[in-house]
């Protein structure tokens, strides 16, 4: 019929097969022939039932998101589903792989759904700042009940076939021979006879909704949305499914969808979706990969332990090396304890814990690293120590092994130079806790070989990380920009702002946590040690550290933490200290508003990003956004600092930076030439050319 949709018959059952690799997206060139085929089969008296199945590795895994925001080419998905629901003979979706978004909505247009036992089903639109716009919010609750549907649609998380069977989303689960089983299922339905109700007419589950419980659940979810519109709209749409007629609810879903798809938040989230995929491509498909079987980790401290877990969680055997037996046992015990906590929480089975622990081998002898294909160093942040470690690695590592450093700031070129094989050296900057945080800055040093780089990018993806390739500079992309964001912290305090006021501006902006709370969480001693090593000072932060106020771990820092609580309370002592230091410097307190705080923290953040782009430390502005959203909590609804700069208005940012540069003479405010070009062209790509 078409290259993308074909029809075959198995007795009197017609099997419609969609074949649109790689994931059978619901593109226009699928919808059109599918619509035609279904219309013909509906009217064909020789056809008793219809099965919709997919070729390749999955059922329809979603809409074609490259079509979002463009004029819709008819027939749109909703029309295909509406047509499906006019068919009186039994229709069956045969689901393998993943039925996501528009794919699941298509399946919801069928009378029945049968699934392979390994299939997953979900409506992930919320992750793109959208809601399911093809009737998903109105049909899913009719099958699984409003509360279950709300949970699935607001989280966007897919469920497995067995759970879907229990929930009433699918009617049968099979192991293997799915299409044949679906045909058999369809024939049984034909034999059973009677009238088959489309999902739109099935109201029994919805009628039983406990409205008060539903509204409580929706209110909870709204609280967690932190300023994102899509989760709220999702909840509203499901609520409409309960209280309005099918057609009214469907029309309301459409309206909500159109509003979201045209909004900045969804644009930002779709930008991030493509940005992550682009960043994860690394040097490209044509570059060869090295074989990675066993991982070595040096240092079993905070980072080494977390990195080791990240690899073990990805199924890799790990050799963990420490300076002595005591430090090694301490590191292994922490890993053991972390897995036990996961088991206690129910997020890991006991069997999986045992299996993962079985992947670890401890050692204090560098010779034991000889069989490792990738060795990641996570020892103290000192160049001399790092170079000594890499010197030893050079002597024991097998030829072609990739040697990586987890340094936060240091020059990876200098570390590479302490080996005879700088082509094998790369930075792998994990974020803490390394077994949880998704971001991985992959530092390409001057001499890093393309195949070494391609290998670690692919490996990072394989263990569920979000990789971004960056160049060498002090602090790479993330920490370098973080320094720019915080450069005015002390000045703002001295001039009259308070830590809680600044943090509040950040959380109102959408950050999960403000910079001072963040400092208390990470430990103020880290920055203090760094400053001392670099001959820098920070009058207030240094004094806090001299007083032993390191943050949460000591019960006080920028805030006070009563009785081991993690909730910060503002501390008058800190405010007194700030005022005293200001008086010493002859600075009078004045009122500082939210706009000024943003101009002096987030505008320098963007400006530093532009400098990084100019220096080609990052390949693309979108890579910087990926770093900030995944590593530092930049609000996803604003798309990362570089995307947000466009929303905020680059011209305005340049103008205000110039103003602050004039006021303070500080380098962080001096607008980068590339930022000026962005203001002129409206495109980072054009500006970077
Ligand atoms: P840590 O002090 O918790 O752990 C360092 C470990 O390395 C210690 O257990 C120590 O015994 C061991 N060690 C020291 N010298 C060694 C050697 N020669 N051979 C083997 N083991 C040795 O420190 P950390 O916080 O895990 O930081 C480690 C590295 O990770 C640093 O380079 C740091 O900058 C970087 N990093 C830290 C964070 C963070 O948030 N803590 C985040 C990203 C990167």
UniProtKB/TrEMBL annotation:
Domain 3-hydroxyacyl-CoA dehydrogenase NAD binding, chain residue ranges per copy:
295-471
Please name the GO terms of the biological process aspect recorded for this protein, alphabetically: fatty acid beta-oxidation
> What domain of life does the UniProt record list for this protein's source?
Bacteria
GO MF terms, alphabetically ordered:
(3S)-3-hydroxyacyl-CoA dehydrogenase (NAD+) activity; enoyl-CoA hydratase activity; isomerase activity; NAD+ binding
Gene3D superfamilies per UniProt: 1.10.1040.50, 2-enoyl-CoA Hydratase, Chain A, domain 1, NAD(P)-binding Rossmann-like Domain
- Pathway the protein takes part in: Lipid metabolism; fatty acid beta-oxidation
Q: Which PROSITE patterns match?
A: ENOYL_COA_HYDRATASE (PS00166)
Where it sits in the cell: the answer is: Peroxisome
UniProt xrefs under Pfam families: 3HCDH, 3HCDH_N, ECH_1
Keywords per UniProt: Fatty acid metabolism, Isomerase, Lipid degradation, Lipid metabolism, Lyase, Multifunctional enzyme, NAD, Oxidoreductase, Peroxisome
Keyword NAD appears in the UniProt entry: yes
Please indicate if the UniProt record lists Lyase as a keyword: yes
Q: Which reaction does it catalyse?
A: a (3S)-3-hydroxyacyl-CoA + NAD(+) = a 3-oxoacyl-CoA + NADH + H(+)
Query: Can you give the residue ranges of the 3-hydroxyacyl-CoA dehydrogenase C-terminal domain?
Result: 475-561, 597-684
Database matches in PANTHER family? 3-HYDROXYACYL-COA DEHYROGENASE, PEROXISOMAL BIFUNCTIONAL ENZYME
What the record says about family reads: In the N-terminal section; belongs to the enoyl-CoA hydratase/isomerase family. Belongs to the enoyl-CoA hydratase/isomerase family.
Please give the subunit comment from the record.
Monomer.
This chain's protein is named Enoyl-CoA hydratase/3-hydroxyacyl-CoA dehydrogenase
Origin species, per record, is Mesorhizobium amorphae CCNWGS0123
């Amino acid at each position: 019929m078409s290259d993308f949709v074909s029809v075959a018959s198995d007795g009197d059952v017609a099997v419609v097969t969609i074949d649109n690799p790689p994931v059978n997206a619901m593109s226009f060139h699928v919808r059109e022939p599918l619509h035609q085929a279904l219309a013909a089969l509906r009217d064909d008296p020789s056809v008793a039932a219809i099965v919709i199945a997919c070729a390749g590795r999955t059922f329809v895994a979603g809409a074609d998101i490259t079509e979002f925001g463009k004029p819709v080419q008819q027939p749109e998905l909703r029309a295909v589903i509406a047509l499906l629901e006019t068919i009186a003979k039994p229709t069956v979706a045969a689901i393998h792989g993943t039925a996501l978004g528009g794919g699941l909505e298509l399946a919801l247009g069928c009378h029945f759904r049968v699934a392979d036992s390994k299939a997953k089903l979900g409506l992930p639109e919320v992750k793109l700042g959208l809601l399911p716009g093809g009737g998903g919010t109105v049909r899913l609750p009719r099958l699984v009940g409003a509360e279950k549907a709300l949970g699935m649609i607001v989280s966007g998380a897919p469920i497995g076939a067995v759970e879907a069977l229990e929930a009433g989303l699918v009617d049968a689960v099979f192991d293997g021979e799915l299409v044949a089983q679906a045909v058999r299922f369809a024939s049984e339905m034909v034999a059973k006879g009677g009238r088959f109700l489309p999902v739109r007419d099935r109201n029994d589950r919805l009628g039983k909704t406990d409205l008060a419980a539903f509204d409580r659940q929706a209110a909870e979810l709204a609280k967690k949305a932190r300023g994102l519109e899509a989760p709220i709209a999702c909840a509203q749409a499901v609520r409409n499914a309960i209280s309005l007629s099918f057609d009214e609810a469907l029309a309301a879903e459409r309206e909500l969808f159109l509003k979201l798809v045209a909004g900045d938040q969804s644009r930002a989230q779709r930008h991030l979706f493509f940005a992550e995929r682009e960043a994860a491509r690394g040097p490209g498909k044509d570059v060869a990969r090295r074989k990675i079987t066993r991982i070595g980790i040096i240092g079993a401290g905070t980072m080494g332990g977390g990195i080791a877990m990240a690899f073990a969680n990805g199924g890799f055997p790990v050799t963990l090396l420490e300076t002595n037996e005591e430090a090694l046992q301490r590191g292994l015990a922490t890993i053991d304890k972390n897995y036990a906590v996961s088991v206690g929480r129910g997020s890991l089975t006991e069997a999986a814990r045992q299996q993962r622990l079985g992947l670890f081998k401890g050692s204090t002898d560098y010779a034991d690293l000889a069989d490792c294909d990738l060795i990641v160093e996570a020892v103290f942040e000192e160049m001399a120590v790092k170079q000594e470690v890499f010197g030893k690695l050079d002597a024991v590592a097998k030829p072609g092994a990739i040697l990586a450093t987890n340094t936060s700031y240091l020059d990876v070129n200098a570390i590479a130079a302490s080996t005879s094989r700088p082509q094998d050296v790369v930075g792998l900057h994990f974020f803490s806790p390394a077994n949880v945080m998704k971001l991985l800055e992959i530092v390409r040093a001057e001499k890093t070989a393309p195949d070494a780089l391609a290998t670690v990018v692919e490996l990072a993806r394989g263990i569920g990380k979000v990789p971004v390739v960056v160049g060498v500079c002090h602090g790479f992309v993330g920490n370098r920009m973080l320094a720019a964001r915080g450069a005015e912290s002390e000045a703002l305090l001295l001039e009259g702002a308070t830590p809680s006021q600044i943090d509040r501006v950040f959380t109102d902006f959408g950050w999960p946590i403000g910079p001072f709370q963040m400092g208390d969480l990470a430990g103020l001693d880290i920055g203090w040690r760094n400053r001392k090593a670099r001959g820098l000072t920070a009058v207030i932060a240094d004094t806090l550290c001299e007083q032993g106020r390191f943050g949460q771990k000591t019960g006080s820092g920028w805030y006070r933490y009563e009785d081991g609580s993690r909730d910060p309370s503002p501390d008058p002592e800190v405010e007194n200290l700030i005022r005293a230091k200001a008086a010493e410097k002859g600075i009078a307190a004045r009122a500082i508003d939210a706009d000024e705080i943003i101009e002096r923290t987030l505008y320098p953040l963007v400006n530093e990003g532009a400098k990084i782009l100019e220096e080609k430390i990052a390949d693309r502005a979108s890579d910087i956004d990926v770093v900030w959203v995944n590593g530092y909590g930049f609000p996803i609804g604003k798309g990362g600092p570089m995307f947000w700069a466009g929303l905020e208005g680059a011209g305005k940012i340049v103008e205000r930076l110039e103003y602050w540069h004039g006021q303070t003479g500080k380098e962080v405010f001096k607008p980068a030439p590339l930022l000026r070009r962005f203001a002129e062209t409206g495109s980072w790509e054009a500006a970077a050319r």
